[in-house]
Amino acid sequence: MKKDNGFVLMRNNKPYFIKGAGGTRYLDRLAKYGGNSLRTWSSNNGDQDLAKAESLGLTVTMGLDVARERHGFNYDDTVAVRKQLEKLRREVIKYRNHPALLMWGIGNELNLDYKNPKVWDAVNDIAKMIHQEDPYHPVTTMLAGVNPGVVKNVIARCPDLDLLAVQVYGGLAKVPEQIVNVGWKKAYIVTEWGPTGHWESTITPWKAAIEETSSEKAEVYRKRYEASIKVDQNCLGSYVFLWGQKQERTPTWYGLFTEAGEESEVIDVMQYLWTGKWPDDRAPHLDSLTLDGKRATNFIYLQPGKTYPVNIYIKGQGLTSRWELLPESTDLKNGGDRESRPQAMPGLITANQKGCTLKAPEKAGAYRLFLYVSNGRNKVATGNIPFFVGIPSQK
What we know:
Layout: E1 2-3, E2 6-7, E3 10-11, E4 14-15, E5 18-22, H1 27-32, E6 37-39, H2 46-56, E7 59-64, H3 78-95, E8 101-108, H4 118-133, E9 139-144, H5 148-157, E10 164-167, H6 175-181, E11 188-192, H7 214-227, E12 235-240, H8 265-275, E13 285-291, E14 300-302, E15 307-315, E16 320-327, E17 349-351, E18 355-359, E19 365-374, E20 380-389
Parallel strand pairs: 5-6, 5-12, 6-7, 7-8, 8-9, 9-10, 10-11, 11-12, 14-20
Antiparallel strand pairs: 1-2, 3-4, 13-15, 15-18, 16-19, 17-18, 19-20
Helix pairs in contact: 3-4, 7-8
């Protein structure tokens, strides 16, 4: 609904600002910490996701899985496009009356590595179909970034979208201005946002992206949210990424939880942003992590088989540390596609009171040392340092 100075989303005749998270795990904690909505990427588990959300008082932006050109789908193939539309129609009819449903999301980052603008004709036809089958829930599509050329195409070809959804990481604070500059006149939401993306980060000479620590992430999540989503009257809310854990460049880059379900400092920040109050029990705060006296941004080279000191500087009481050494990941994908986790390398780390000592692997190549510091109450700080054993080739 348009108002004098922006837009407002109405649900059950009341203003509803989305305090959401992307993912379907740990939903009880999402509700407990002040969140009110979750976002999915498909309706494959729609029954389960909607039922769980309803039981916790949460809503769902239900993703509809639309084929991507970068995975080989051809939007010139009218038969395939029509078949997809009818498949999605069945999904919409199945879930349209569920009380936890908030809105529909058509596809995910269909603009990523695409060339054929007919994808937007298909998106608009899906939006039209949804409005026919379900006139009560808004319809959007999720874009990677706020690209002027892409949004111009969406404006021209997708008049049936009710709002826009954008997915932005390092540049989140600039989104309100960008939305105005590209000429979008309707409301928008941010359906993914989080740490500085691996494609936006400092890259080592051996092509490894440098990841922020959990404490650095906590700071950028807070600052970027407060500069954009919190204050822009055209923004109806957001879905923080990722309410769970996944391997993408590293096992810790995007997940707000560890593989064991421990909560990072970012979750403390989200509770504060959603409720205005910090939790009583805060996650450990990692000030810095050094290898051989150097930070990750110093581009660290080690000699095979030699031992080096690793020091951590951290705030918190009763903390325990664990370490893991991984080869640098080589199974690298785009757009969040599934990646495999590298196998850990045992026997090269000796923990001590200051941190640990690391024996560099004998084999030349790229590696990454991971740190997890737990307070014993399911709260954790994480950090990692990429390093190179030997001298990299000058390719």
